Amino acid sequence: MFDLIVRGGQVVTPQGVQRLDLGVEGGVLYAVSPDLAGTARQEVDASGLHVLPGGVDVHVHFNEPGRADWEGLQTGSSALLAGGGTTFADMPLNSDPPLLDRATFAAKLAAAGRASHADFALWGGLTPVNLEHLPELAEAGVLGFKAFMSGSGIREFPAAHGDVLHEGMRAAAALGLPVAVHAESDALTAQLQAALDGPGASWREYLQSRPVRAELDAIREALVLARETGCRLHVVHVSSGEGAALIAQARAEGVDVTAETCPHYLSFTEDDLLRVGAALKCAPPLRSAQVRDELWAAVLDGRIDTVGSDHSPCSPDLKTAPNPFRVWGGVAGVQSTLQAMLTHGEERGLTLPRLTQLLSSAPARRFRLAGKGELTAGMDADFALVDVEARAELRREALLNRWPQTSPYLGGTYRGQVREVWLRGERVFAQGQVLGAARGRLVRPA
Ligand SMILES: NC(=O)N[C@H]1NC(=O)NC1=O
Ligand SMILES: [Zn+2]
Ligand SMILES: [Zn+2]
Questions:
Q1: Is residue 285 within 6 Å of ligand 1 at its C-beta?
Q2: For binding Zn(2+) 1, which residues are annotated in this chain's numbering (predicted)?
Q3: How many domains, the chain?
């Protein structure tokens, strides 16, 4: 007798897609097999639906404590569930104060324990002002350390240049934790911005201020440091196939490095930014159709390892400045990752096993989130029931993030409808609504 049996769904595992039943006991997958014998206190009929491992989004900014007016843990985690996610890793900024030491770790842990509907891990910062706190952050249980190689937009979270990044990577290597880098060259982007920012600056100038070569310069520098220090490196939001190629080449040479990209770089181009404006401002910026296609090729051939949302929203008033350089940069997309990938992946031949690898198993493995990311016996019973072929327009009422009107995906027609989401064997999302109290737990890296 199980707690729960989910019958008849098309279950997506790394091996393929197969009609399987899930037997759940104590929140854990006990058996995953065809025509599971036995009974359960609760049986769920998943026929006609796909069963996907819950999404593991290791790149979100939910901004609590301190900036819940931009996004909060309750709204952010609700939107994650609505998009088929069950675990997130929160970035150390843009919460205020940012997560830079033991006390700020404790504050965010307390806030997330109260408000998160999904399980969560926490990134610590790697900045010039907190190098001496990396060991205590490791002890507290951070997933790893996040560094900005160019300005972060947050005064309390300064960029880690040269020696600081080198020292931080050395410390991270000794602690056995990865470093994630926002890789854009500060020297180049600052110089270009100084020349292009001014009265009458348009989105064209913003795009010109952050070219692909700014990303390539910074990736090269980070790879040199990772090679030298032996640090595990994760390059976040890679926006170009060339960037992915540099990373893949270093990996082939023995550097322990992985690459992430985001759905917005795979869904939109710079022409969309010129048309839509602020909702699509991000850094690195959107690229040409050709660069986007090269990035897709890297996603399909394995040079890109993970896809995270980089959900980095703000209140709508921060998206209205007439000068694009003054607009907050960040895309509000945490709920749309799965739909964007199902929709744009269809025409490019992205299979469901590969999709769930990018969204679930690869990030869980890379960051040692034990029990997460795969539907095999022994793992947490975290999964989404998805009608993969259902297509619908994304409407504002469906979005559960703090400011649905800031989503650049609004009004688009997307493939895939998330019907239910289960976290550790309990139904936490159904019929467009989050169910029950916040019961998210901290996941420390194994
Ligand atoms: N501070 C912050 O979240 N910045 C993010 N926004 C964005 O578009 N790229 C980033 O790194
Ligand atoms: Zn970034
Ligand atoms: Zn980010």
A1: no
A2: 59, 61, 146, 310
A3: 2
